[in-house]
Amino acid sequence: MYEVLIKEYLKRLSLKDINNFANKNNMPLEKGEDKIIYDFIMNNWLEVYKGDANKAFIILKKQVSPNTFNNIMKLYNEFKDKIK
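and the corresponding structure tokens:
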């Protein structure tokens, strides 16, 4: 059930949404990182949701700045802990 909801949400996700979320969470992105994060979400959401999230995040770590990656992991862990 949740997979269907996530897929529907992702159909509407935009670069503007990525940038707005980053700004709202005091997470400045370097030029082009919004597109990298967008592509990562689109291609790896299922692995993060149901698989080995750490394996998926290794891919992202190689593509964004260390500061951005650390902020993403901080937010991921924060939101993941709220769901449990």
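(Above: one complete record from the training split.) The helical segments are 2-12, 15-24, 33-50, 53-61, 66-83.
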